[in-house]
Amino acid sequence: MNLSLPDAFKSYKPNVIFNIDSDHFLIKTAETQEELLGAFQLRNEVFYEEWTGKSSESGLDIDQYDLQADHLIVIQKEDNKVVGTYRLRATEFNDRFYAEVFFNIDNFLNKKSGNKVEMGRACTHKSLRGSQAIHCIWLGLARYFRKTFSRYMFGCVSIIDTSPEYVASVYKTFLAEELVDTDAVVSPLEKYRINSFDDLLLQSKANKSDLLKLPRLFLWYLNLGIKIHGPPVFDPNFKSYDFFITLDFKNVKNPKLVNRYEDAVYLRDKLL
Fold first, then answer.
1. Which of 55, 73, 171, 226 is the most exposed place for a label (fewest CB within 10 A)?
2. Helix, strand and coil percent figures for the chain, each rounded to 5
3. Would you call 57 helix, strand, or coil by DSSP?
4. DSSP secondary structure letters along the chain
5. What whole-number distance in Å separates Cα of residue 260 and Cα of residue 37?
6. Which residues, at least 6 apart from 46, have a Cβ–Cβ distance to it below 8 Å?
7. What fold does the segment set 7-254 form as a domain?
8. What is the pLDDT of residue 251?
9. Which of 199, 255, 268 is nearest to 231 (CA)?
């Protein structure tokens, strides 16, 4: 398939530009048409081909939130291939967000002061899904947060190939472990609420071992000290259950992780 970007992307320019050289990888924000194609093609491979068993019609995963976003990419130097990507939409440059498709997030945006970055469409190539990928992504995220003077990250994180009963048990465990932020509750929009979720929640039991079955990215977020902001939604397009999460950079739970990255330390100690 001959892949090409929509015409609107011909004039695309990132809001934030940086390059980090890290051993076998280059971590940067996408600047060229080729780099954007690589990111959107990787997203199609993961979110469509792996998750749903079919490709999008264009062979790319693109939506209306991409044009005004920055796209963090990890390029494998050996073959110049994009093997990781993250869509970043900073409040410094945007006032509408993908999470608003599923949730009313006004409570969070209004109650939490400081610059924020919506993070989404995170994925890595199936050959690069371990600590190495997380290291590369964290290098890029820390640099982006430093450049945008951002205190909070927020967005949707997904669970696939599971049941609503398991999702209810996970949420009950989040409640029991005091991981749910009750000060800035984010409400699912009616269209995406999980059927009879309140009943499922009453029938479920908190079980910490259920958290170990969560996707690697979700576990990484939990290790950082994220907060959950209310019950999840069901996304019928990708057949996933999505939680709205946030991380306050001033209150990262794992200081050892932060201390590994110069930009993260600078952000925590100097900017915030």
1. 55
2. 40, 25, 35
3. coil
4. ------GGGGG---SS--EEEETTEEEEE--SHHHHHHHHHHHIIIIIIIHHSS--TTSS---TTSTTSEEEEEEETTTTEEEEEEEEEETTT-S--GGGGTEE-HHHHHHS-SEEEEEEEEEE-TT--SHHHHHHHHHHHHHHHHHTTEEEEEEEEEE-S--HHHHHHHHHHHHHTT-B-SSS--EEPGGGBPTTHHHHHHH----HHHHTTS-HHHHHHHHHT-EE-S--EEETTTTEEEEEEEEEGGG-S-HHHHHT-HHHHHIIIII-
5. 31
6. 123, 124, 126
7. Aminopeptidase (3.40.630)
8. 80
9. 199
Tokens 């932060």, located at residue = 258
pLDDT at 1: 61
Task: Give residue 272's pLDDT.
Answer: 59
Whether 43 contacts 71, CB under 8 Å: no
Q: What pLDDT, on the 0 to 100 scale, is given for residue 154? A: 96
Q: Do 45 and 154 touch, CB atoms closer than 8 A?
A: no
| pLDDT at 127 (0 to 100) | 80
